[in-house]
Fold this protein.
Amino acid sequence: MPVLILALGAIPGAYLVNRVGARRAVTYGLAILTLGTALRGALSLPLTLFFFTALLALGIAISQPAMPALVEVWFPRQIARASAIYTNGLLAGEVIAATITLPFLLGALHLGWQAGLSFWAIPAAGCLGLWLLIVPRLGQTGTAPPFGNWLPNVRSWDMWRIGLLMGGTSLVYFGMNSWIPDTLEVRGGHHLIALSLGLLNFMQLPVSAALAVAGDSLLGRRWPYVFAGLLSLLGVSGYLAGPLDLAPICAGLMGAASSLVFIMNLGLPAVLAPGEVPRFSGFMFTVGYGCAFFGPALGGFAWDLTGRSAFAVLPMGIAALSIVALGASLPQMRSAAGGVSSKVV
């Protein structure tokens, strides 16, 4: 459900950015996230759990189109580096939460599942407070586009290209997270599930760290997308057809490739459509998370229909091919950093 809310809330998030500004949109998103997290475990009723989970996901959803807009304004010459740095924060939060919730909050502290869920409102509130205290206010110069220019232009191929690139990489990442346990289980690889999932997620970190250093030299070029798509395709092929013991390595390849495309794609709206970043970003996240939600379900349907577990991973192979094709089709772009025309290679 959170992934679906991330898709449904992205375009309203773009509207909010254009209505109140990017900084305030992030403020509202963090506040909603904190409220939803705090109340998520307040009652032991399934309905309240679902409702407040959806609420916290909505807080994330409306914040996401604002972040690329802020990067465009605050770091116009370091878009890829800034995108990689805040993505490092996203990944670090995922790793920290996954690492300490079970063994520490539920284990050592014996908080119980309700308090364990609500605990994460504390760091969320801390981030909201720091955001309000430290983050500078945007002036009138360089702010988001005027109110009204937020609805996606579905006739724009550039908009679809960015969205489908995000959809492809999201499907590879979320799809493998969904299907690694079941597909390895039926192949007799239960002992490899934890390692495969761990490498799928961990390998995003070194890629993100590397892009924080060198990402600006790659922004707007074709070859990183083609390379990442081929790497994903190699990972999917090896996972399906290779020896069982190669599954963790193949999962790691897919994690690294998906991180590369995700981070580079965050900077594409500023390069392809300067001044329309919230509009492009909202559509990008809608398509991206939509593919992440529906793609794995299609894989499950194919497995049920054919009786073969390999078909569950088939959508990820198609997504990898789409990344190659879409990345190779990127147009000549004008660098957002220097404003000098450079042909993508």
About this structure: Confidence is low (pLDDT under 50) at residues 139-147, 334-345.
